[in-house]
Structures are given as structure tokens and as C-alpha cells.
Sequence to fold (395 residues):
Amino acid sequence: MNRGKIKVEITTIMPERFVNILCNEGIVLEEIKKISIVNYTFKISPNELSRINELAEEHKVRVRILDSAGMYKFKNKFFKRKAFFIGMALFIVLIYYLSNYIWVINIKTENYVSPYEIRTYLKTLGIKPGIKKEKLDIFKLENNIQEENNNVVWVRARIQGTKLGIEISERQNPPKIEEDNSPCDLVAKKDGIIERVYTKSGTAIVEEGQIVKKGDVLVRGIQGKEESTYEVKAQGDVIAKTFYENIKKVKIPKVKRIRTGRMLINRYITVKNKKIYLKNDLNKFKKYDKIEDNNSFVKKEIYYEVKEQPFTKDDEKKIIKENLLKMYSDITINFNNNIKIIKKIEDSRKEGENCKLKVLIIVEEEISEAKGNLIVKNEEGIDGNQKNENGEGQN
Fold:
């Protein structure tokens, strides 16, 4: 085998004599070939090359390397291009080092808080381009910005690579509302069953236990006795029992995926949208979950081995419970403090591979709202200038 051997060519007036000198020195020569009267080629071990060069210089023989293999070839190429390899290594080290710092700060605001104002405040905290990531406490930064500016109600700060992104939501000042004292009725803004009626002005025309539909008049903007009535702005509270319902179909899977605890991590960097792997082990998992972590310069591919197991009744109950809880939360998330929950009714029913879920919430809430024009009928004693439902004057 010629693994690791170097093929050299010697040029001299008497090549045979030089070959004999090498043999007498104990240098092993292989595959000796005569090329011409003055040229011979042979193969030697890399360890003998320096000794041959010394003898060649002593006997005025020219030695030229024709071919090499093994570590000598690698070393030879490395030393010829060592500047390139050293430069590449330094470049990777430099990029990795710089990736531990924040170099760009992006600030997104809305109307009244300026990015310059936030950037100036960040400088007072020592946060500016060039700060180390490990010195940043994201949650503390969010709280500091929110406490510093009364117009800020919500802050989201995130580190993405070498960038720090800050998104700010501002406090919305409520519009100035001018009170309208024009005569009006109170009507139902939703269906319900009347529980209680409190009036400050106007005449209630509904009572406890009465079913009302959206748009029905609850308190009429008329006050006084039959002989002498006058228009007023109806004011009061009408508490009714109302209903909120959420219906959803959930598919029940036949198998579930469970992680076994075995995992595999590959690491790579991205250059011009191409992946250059620093560690790329073969994924031998038959079934797995794959997660990519792109938050740093050296990115990760994480493989978790999973196994599949049949779905049990307990698993089915768990999914149903989680979905019913979410459906309940989706309804109540928009409730204000004035809504009182009376009862919650949950139901689940199998329909083939699906499960039909239903959540019904019974609450007590204020259902009245003012309607601009009075809704009246043609009756004696009512002012003829009042408007009917179509907005036309009564004659």
C-alpha cells in the first residue's frame, strides 16, 4: 500500500550513484523507476524527506516532489493555505463573539410616545448598541419602561439574534362625552328575562319575570299623570337574566404521541441562506418531533423521539375538560364587573369521531340602553309633536 508515501523525482548526472547513497544511508526506496539517463523516480516515507534533501544538497542533486498522500499531503496543503484557514477560524470566532451582543435596537410605538423618548430612557439604563445580552433582564426592562411613562400600558421586549425589539402599546384617552338630556326611551339591547327594574326618571312598562326581545321598550320617556304628561330622558337600570352559549366540535384522536426522553441536537450556522453544520448527527428516530431554535448565531435542530399509544378514556375526558374550560373562558373574557354569573351548564355528546361540546352561561346584567327618539302610540293626552317609530310627526 502507498498510504502516506511521497513520490519524488531526482535529477543528476549519475542518478544510480545517488540511489546507492540513499540505500547505504538506510533509506527505504520503493517503486524505483528510470525515466531518463538523468532522472529517476521512487517513493519514500515522509519521515525520510528531510534526510534526502540534506544528501541532495550535499551531492548537488535536484529533488522534486511529484505526488503525496496521507497526513503529509494534508499538512502540505494546510501550510500552503494556512492564512485562509486561520482567517476562516478567526472569522467564525469573531462572529460567535459578536453574536453575544446587541447591535440594533428597534422601537415601535403608536401615537404619543416617540421612539426617541424611549431610546433616551434606555441610554439612562445603560442599554445601547454594544451591550452584552447576558446583562439584559427583559422582564425588568419591560416593567421599568411601563413605570417610567404613564402613557404606556403594555410593553413587549424580545431579543432576536443581535437585535432588541421593543413594542409599546399606549394608553388611549377616553373621548369627551357631552351629556345629552334629550327625551328618550330605554330599550333592551339584548334578549332576556326581567329580574329587577330601577327608574330615576320615566315610566317602567316591564315587570319581573317578563321576557323581552332586543329593541323592546323597557322604560318610556314619559312622566306625569294621564291628564298632564311630559317628555323626559328615561334613566334607570333594568337587570335581566341573559344567556351566553358556545358550541364547538372537537375531533378525538385515536393515538397520542409521547416523548421517550431521548433527543438529538444538531448545530449549524447560516451563510447566504445556506446551512453549514457544525454538528450533524444522523437522526435514527423512526418517529420524532422536530424543533428549530434560531435565537442565536449558532442555531439548533432538536429532535425528540416519540412513541404512539392508543387514546384512552381518561385522555378523552382530559381533552373535553380542557376544551370546555377554554370555551368558558372565551365567553367570560369580555365580561365586566357588573355581570353576575348565576349558573354554568356544560354538555358533551359523541358524534362519530367528533365530540360536540356546549357551554351555556346564565348571568344577570344591565340590558337597557337609551334610544334617541321616543317610541309612542296615538293616544289622547300625548303631545302631537312626538315622533313615532318611523320618525314622522303625529297629527
Remarks:
- Helices lie at 15-24, 49-58, 70-80, 82-98, 115-124, 138-148, 313-332.
- Residues 313-332 form the longest helix (20 residues).
- DSSP finds seven helices and 24 strands in the chain.
- Residues 6-79 form a domain with the Alpha-Beta Plaits fold (CATH 3.30.70.260).
